[in-house]
Amino acid sequence: MTGEHDTRNDHGFFGQPRALVHLFGVEMWERFSFYGMQGILLIYLYYSATRGGLGMDEVSAAGIVGAYGGAVYLSTILGAWIADRLLGSERVLFFSAIVIMAGHIALALLPGFLGVGVGLVLVAFGSGGLKANATSVVGTLYDEHDPRRDAGFSVFYLGINLGAFLGPILTGLAQTTLGFHWGFGLAAVGMAIGLVQYAFGRKHLPPEASVVPNPLPRERRPLVIGIAIAAVVLVAVLVLTGLVNAQNLVLWIIGGTIVAAIAYFAVILASRAISTVERHRVYGFIPLFVASVAFWSLYQQQFTVLTIYSDKQLNRDLFGWEMPVSWVQSINPIFIIVLSGVFAAIWTKLGDRQPSTPIKFALGTMIMGVAFLLFIPFAGGGPNSTPLLAIVGILLVFTVAELLLSPVGLSVATKLAPKVFHTQMVALFFLSVALGTAISGRLAEFYSAQNEVVYFGVLGGIAIVLGVALALGSRGVLKLMSGVR
């Protein structure tokens, strides 16, 4: 790397390469638009037309939100494949940002369910492509042994959480004062700001960001194009014939994700290109995969059940002014910003004495279950019956659980991955997030204010039992992990 692309000797952005500011910006504004839109999406679907919504029943609306969330994480696999085989991470990131912006514009300008359908498909595919490649591009700014690397990623993740914090606040204000389409429009404006900044800054990225690691042979491209066209036609036929509809969409996403996960595990475990130790490590990843699914199926209910709960039972009165529903989703990012540094310091201080990965996963799953049990004292309350401080406390527990499981998930996937299946193991972790997110939408269909004790009690109890089982079996899992902690 030489000239303007020499990031190794560039300390122009708080001691980091100047190019990081452009990646920080595009990721911050993407998260702003993503969480801003998601903060008002569910209530847009089920609010009556007189309140500016589409008047769906809550069950179907929650299922759509869960299916959409699952599709985002499923799309990360497609985004990673396109980067690895066709375009390279930098180009996929750029085009994905354009697709995301187009999706938010569709939600803002197209009427009714047409806008929802076009908008959510575009945002899901775009977010998947951007999510899969932004971290990879950040990594190209540093040599493998650059001491600034971890700090640079910390700055990058700060951008993620700043966007996640600001998005629901500003789109919620736009929705309550001007209307839903203004909220979606604000999400589009945010993504446009990030895209413009990145468009000017991408020329400063190192050449490695645009490399296609494993180019698809030219003679195989017609086959890939044919498969892509066939997939689009198949989806169109399923939708037009009514086999896929708003009521069962989440079940299709769950089924497709399960099939993909089983296929991934089968292909890796059956391969002759992996050693016995590598095969044992893949087996060791299976209980972590199950715990991750359980965790995300509860955690992602922030965007389904918790949104309904905040709309109907939470006391959102702030000195005589009613706080927008979406603001509840800005609480978690605040805690992440504050606590991520605390957790990093704790793990650094403990060093080799810190809990193993299976124990961290077990604790994360158990604490997530405890968070659900904390809803029970407020169960069955009427409108405005739950104090805002109670939800703040519960979301603090959500965050502690997240910081025990989420940051180590991708890390352990890369550590346990066989050399020839490095990307596929990362894809498997994203599949656990996709499956958990889709399941969260399906579970929300069983929620009602009348059965809150059963709902929160059963799901919380299941998560705790799974966490305890993983903790009890952690020695066996560690043995399979063959030296990886």
Automatic annotation (TrEMBL):
The keyword Transport applies. Coiled coil: none annotated. One of its GO terms (molecular function) is peptide transmembrane transporter activity. The chain crosses the membrane at residues 32-49, 61-83, 92-114, 154-174, 180-201, 222-243, 249-270, 282-299, 327-347, 359-380, 386-405, 426-447, 453-472. Keywords: Cell membrane, Membrane, Transmembrane, Transmembrane helix, Transport. PROSITE patterns: MFS, PTR2_2. Residues 1-475 form the Major facilitator superfamily (MFS) profile domain. One of its GO terms (cellular component) is plasma membrane. One of its GO terms (biological process) is oligopeptide transport. Pfam families: PTR2. Belongs to the major facilitator superfamily. Proton-dependent oligopeptide transporter (POT/PTR) (TC 2.A.17) family. This is MFS transporter. It comes from Agromyces intestinalis.
